[in-house]
Amino acid sequence: MSELSVNHLLGIKYLNKKDIELIFETADHFKEVINRPIKKVPSLRDITIANLFFENSTRTKLSFELAEKRLSADVINFSASQSSVKKGETLIDTVNNILSMKVDMVVMRHPNPGASVFLSQHVDASIINAGDGAHEHPTQALLDSYSIRERLGEVKGKNVVIVGDILHSRVALSNIYALKLQGANVMVCGPKTLIPKHIDKLGVIVETNLRKALNWCDVANMLRVQNERMEISYFPSTREYTQQFGVNKALLDSLEKKITIMHPGPINRGVEITSDVADSNQAIILDQVQNGVAIRMAVIYLLASKIKP
């Protein structure tokens, strides 16, 4: 049985190409399970998983919870906004309290970059990073690559452009790592103010003209503008942003070839993409959601198999 080279999923930058291939093969198997009439497998009956969300999340949290329940794990949900964290309890104390309840695995989203790495060094449980600040979001990048592989046959050699707020996006960074690892060509496109200064050091192409970027790519991954992470204004107005970096059906239809549209959600309809694009057959946004459960099942299952009884 192949196994992952890591004991935690802290970020894509800690994985190798074989890890990604193993996660995808395992997800293929779980995708069949999800489509059966009985969607559960007893794989993790003796594993307890705590979901710690120190930041709001709807889709990621639901996706992880569903993945855990499909694998028959015992699940504890902890929402920090309603907890002792508000009373000043530290991250380590919170987690140690949860671990004293004999938890094997922690899925954590936290506003501070590196929180999951810090945690993995201090507690004795397998940690999955469900997003840390504007740093990484590894399961999102894995499900994005998996969705590209499903739609286009493989990721290697494909041209993928990530459009929008690259500066504040953990999805962008994890995607760049994952796509480069699998041999895709990666471009980022957005207002200059929303593209990090030294991003070309990661081996990506920088383009500020949306039409050029779309004509170049096979896949466009459209990110939303993360207003909640902005203390200052990075562009004149939402209307102007949409005019320059929003994708509508007329623009899509005028391109030289049919491209695939992705979005990690939640979509700001009418800002980065219009409804007729989001709901068109070129968009694989709902496939990404379904694949998210299969990928998270695969990650949890593979990490759980490394936990010593």
Automatic annotation (TrEMBL):
<protein>
    <recommendedName>
        <fullName>Aspartate carbamoyltransferase</fullName>
        <ecNumber>2.1.3.2</ecNumber>
    </recommendedName>
</protein>
<dbReference type="InterPro" id="IPR006130">
    <property type="entry name" value="Asp/Orn_carbamoylTrfase"/>
</dbReference>
<feature type="binding site">
    <location>
        <position position="59"/>
    </location>
    <ligand>
        <name>carbamoyl phosphate</name>
    </ligand>
</feature>
<dbReference type="InterPro" id="IPR036901">
    <property type="entry name" value="Asp/Orn_carbamoylTrfase_sf"/>
</dbReference>
<dbReference type="InterPro" id="IPR006132">
    <property type="entry name" value="Asp/Orn_carbamoyltranf_P-bd"/>
</dbReference>
<feature type="binding site">
    <location>
        <position position="224"/>
    </location>
    <ligand>
        <name>L-aspartate</name>
    </ligand>
</feature>
<dbReference type="GO" id="GO:0016597">
    <property type="term" value="F:amino acid binding"/>
</dbReference>
<dbReference type="Pfam" id="PF00185">
    <property type="entry name" value="OTCace"/>
</dbReference>
<dbReference type="GO" id="GO:0044205">
    <property type="term" value="P:'de novo' UMP biosynthetic process"/>
</dbReference>
<comment type="pathway">
    <text>Pyrimidine metabolism; UMP biosynthesis via de novo pathway; (S)-dihydroorotate from bicarbonate: step 2/3.</text>
</comment>
<dbReference type="GO" id="GO:0006207">
    <property type="term" value="P:'de novo' pyrimidine nucleobase biosynthetic process"/>
</dbReference>
<dbReference type="Pfam" id="PF02729">
    <property type="entry name" value="OTCace_N"/>
</dbReference>
<keyword id="KW-0665">Pyrimidine biosynthesis</keyword>
<feature type="binding site">
    <location>
        <position position="170"/>
    </location>
    <ligand>
        <name>L-aspartate</name>
    </ligand>
</feature>
<feature type="binding site">
    <location>
        <position position="265"/>
    </location>
    <ligand>
        <name>carbamoyl phosphate</name>
    </ligand>
</feature>
<comment type="function">
    <text>Catalyzes the condensation of carbamoyl phosphate and aspartate to form carbamoyl aspartate and inorganic phosphate, the committed step in the de novo pyrimidine nucleotide biosynthesis pathway.</text>
</comment>
<dbReference type="GO" id="GO:0006520">
    <property type="term" value="P:amino acid metabolic process"/>
</dbReference>
<feature type="binding site">
    <location>
        <position position="109"/>
    </location>
    <ligand>
        <name>carbamoyl phosphate</name>
    </ligand>
</feature>
<dbReference type="InterPro" id="IPR006131">
    <property type="entry name" value="Asp_carbamoyltransf_Asp/Orn-bd"/>
</dbReference>
<comment type="similarity">
    <text>Belongs to the aspartate/ornithine carbamoyltransferase superfamily. ATCase family.</text>
</comment>
<feature type="domain" description="Aspartate/ornithine carbamoyltransferase Asp/Orn-binding">
    <location>
        <begin position="156"/>
        <end position="302"/>
    </location>
</feature>
<feature type="binding site">
    <location>
        <position position="60"/>
    </location>
    <ligand>
        <name>carbamoyl phosphate</name>
    </ligand>
</feature>
<feature type="domain" description="Aspartate/ornithine carbamoyltransferase carbamoyl-P binding">
    <location>
        <begin position="8"/>
        <end position="150"/>
    </location>
</feature>
<comment type="subunit">
    <text>Heterododecamer (2C3:3R2) of six catalytic PyrB chains organized as two trimers (C3), and six regulatory PyrI chains organized as three dimers (R2).</text>
</comment>
<feature type="binding site">
    <location>
        <position position="266"/>
    </location>
    <ligand>
        <name>carbamoyl phosphate</name>
    </ligand>
</feature>
<feature type="binding site">
    <location>
        <position position="137"/>
    </location>
    <ligand>
        <name>carbamoyl phosphate</name>
    </ligand>
</feature>
<feature type="binding site">
    <location>
        <position position="87"/>
    </location>
    <ligand>
        <name>L-aspartate</name>
    </ligand>
</feature>
<dbReference type="InterPro" id="IPR002082">
    <property type="entry name" value="Asp_carbamoyltransf"/>
</dbReference>
<feature type="binding site">
    <location>
        <position position="140"/>
    </location>
    <ligand>
        <name>carbamoyl phosphate</name>
    </ligand>
</feature>
<keyword id="KW-0808">Transferase</keyword>
<dbReference type="GO" id="GO:0004070">
    <property type="term" value="F:aspartate carbamoyltransferase activity"/>
</dbReference>
